[in-house]
Design brief:
The protein is mainly beta and about 325 residues long. It contains two helices and 21 strands. It has a single domain, classed as Beta-galactosidase, Chain A, domain 5, CATH 2.70.98.
Amino acid sequence: MSLVLCNSRRSIHCFLILSALLLIAGVTQAAPNGNAVIRRKAGDSEIVITTTNRLAGAIHSLTWNGKEFIDSFDHGRQLQSAASFDCGKSGEFWAERFNPTEAGSRSDGAGPTSSSKLLHLQARENELKTTTQMAFWLAPGQKSSGRPALNQKTLSNHLLSKQVRIGYQNLDQVLDYRATFTIPKGEHHTYAQFEALTGYMPAEFELFWKLNPETGKLQPLDDGPGEQKDPVILSTQDQRYAMGVFSPDQPSPGFEHAGYGRFRFTPQKVVKWNCVFRVRNPQGVPPGKYAFQVFVAVGTLEDVKQAILTLEKKFSGK
């Protein structure tokens, strides 16, 4: 389980130190180019992943065999990461009240720019690395379902670094996705909820499935919304296209009943899955880095099922 405080990657660490020194010296750096593409052959086709400046380097598109798997509309509907915190306040936790989000804020809408700040991007062949200073989803003074934002500014001090590689060992149709969240010093939280990865997908991915690792069988999953403990797969009606998620880091201690979510937003004509981790500490969630490994399988429903079963067996030692 990689839910631990960990050292940053050397290259990103050096980049951030250099950026700080240049800022102190009054030297203005050009923003990294957030427009990038990585690709690799996967089965009879190839997986192509695209990032954009509009989304501060978050993943805007994933295609396979001519099909788009991501419904990238505003600055929330991407293949991306986010986190939510309670700020040590008493009362009800609400995910969007203190909610650093990789792609940007609610106010960014469908516009051409992001409130998040891309700090680093490297794309080469089938591998992508980025670091983003995340914007809060709500601007100060905004509300979510009547609940006011707890943040006092739009751009947070929370960082999200990701490494995405298309292909894992002999599994060509799998993304090895590593997300590292950095909680800054100076904030007090007793509860942290990490949406390590979520995928917003076109409404045609209308069938929800859960994969029972013990039986190896798919079972239909109702709309929920919410989480349960088994890996989730979303597919089209004809089962020719599907995307599923598995993490060897699941479940979070104390939250064994949850971890994999599914949601259908009928008015918005979009569906989504997510992979969520949680940390609760009455004394305060320590600042630092929290790293998670998530695998995303893409292909036909049978392709995705077999890939997740292979991963589950590998990491369970069976």
